[in-house]
Amino acid sequence: MSVVCQIKDAALLDHCGITEKWFQLRNEISSRENQFEKILSQTGDIVNTSKHEDCSTLLQTGNVNNYRMKSDLFAIEFPFMMDSQVKRLSSSQASHDKISLKESSADRKRKRKKQRRINTNADIKFISDLKTSLSDLITLSRNESYLTQDTEPYQRNDLAKSASQIHGCGDLFQLLCENLDMHLNTGSHYNESVPHDLNLGDQFHYSAKSLVGVCVRNEDCKLVKVGHDEFLIPKRCSFLTSSFDYFISRGYQQMITSQGFDLLVIDPPWPNKSVKRKKSYATFSELNLKSLPVHHLGKDGGLICIWVTNKEQLINFVKDELFPHWCVEWIADWFWMKVTKSGVPVCDINSEHKKPYEQLIIGRCHLSAGQVVTRIHEKLNNQIVEKQREKEMSPARLPQNFLIVSVPCSLHSKKPPLSDVFSPYLPPNSNCIELFARNLVPEWSSWGNEASLKTL
């Protein structure tokens, strides 16, 4: 279970621990002198194997039992700060400035940001409730030794930063996805020899091209080699690597199940100034999301969850425009709070510039447009919505507000595992899929142009 500590309205997740279990990875190896780092691809995580093992044998047999998660990816010991902040705040000459974490205008030669809107009473209440839930959960987690005690401030997370600086196959699969689109648009044949479904069996070597535009299915956790890169594939998962255009035109048909999906998790590449500056990944307009075939993938009454940034415009777009377009009724707002290993938020909750949390907007799918319930602010209609929501929530009532807390992975845009958090609100043997996926999950389906293909 990824949930290691829980109260009524919040839960602490162990992202690192659950990933080890996903890949049946052993943790008997403890001495770094008897290890060497092996770079793998699937989850976006580094794992280790004993240096006395013959790696060629591991590849030939598909044995993954000698690998384990590299915990340094989660070595977030201190709140996030820029190097100039750390330098200034740790200097004895600047001790009187420790009250503020803002850089001086001389340290950062950037344009002044536009004045932010003043917090409303609703904003203040939300932040207050968030702090209360977080405080209660952190106290319990520390008492149960799931989190450490407070650490010294004004330090860098050097181990985590170092672990995340990994060079892989780059944009290889994204380029292959674009190449597939180009051939399809010109009417030429591409990947003709490869079926639309591919079951991973005894073969351990694949070309990258053979895995693009194909729904890959896997029964057992195994290690495979694609070109010069190695990938860990979890058990009983399926994934499709393709472009957005390929997916909405034909790719989704390769992943549809007879019963539909009980849970759709969507993590769009929203437009973002930080992403644009760092060139972390390609983004596109939110209006493109209307083209996602949610009505084909979703099950009537199934859950639709979409990650959003803290931009008010995007939140309103999802609730007021995107969900109604998909015939989805908004039912809940959940939040993911990113904390250090001692439970301290990675940045100030009250900050107007960067928040330590992200929002997960949850809705319920209705295949008939006449059943859609949009957000209505009038008191009477809100009561009607509440009654309808109570009838439809099964097997357990999904809380309207819930806080997920975890130490974030230092790799970019890695979300916490949601399987165990949602399991009480889904039927047994439920079908789940993630769109715009950046890693694979056991017993889930995944689609994206880098669903399993980050080489680390």
From TrEMBL:
Q: Name one GO molecular function term.
A: methyltransferase activity
Q: Does the keyword Transferase apply?
A: yes
Tell me, which GO biological process terms does this entry list?
methylation
- One Pfam family name is MT-A70
Output compositional bias ranges, type Basic and acidic residues.
Answer: 95-107
Q: Which keywords does this chain's UniProt record carry?
A: Methyltransferase, Transferase
Entry GO CC: nucleus
What residue spans carry the region label Disordered?
Answer: 91-116
Q: Which SUPFAM superfamilies match?
A: S-adenosyl-L-methionine-dependent methyltransferases
Q: Which family does it belong to?
A: Belongs to the MT-A70-like family.
Q: What is this protein called?
A: Methyltransferase-like protein 4 isoform X1
**Organism of derivation:** Biomphalaria pfeifferi
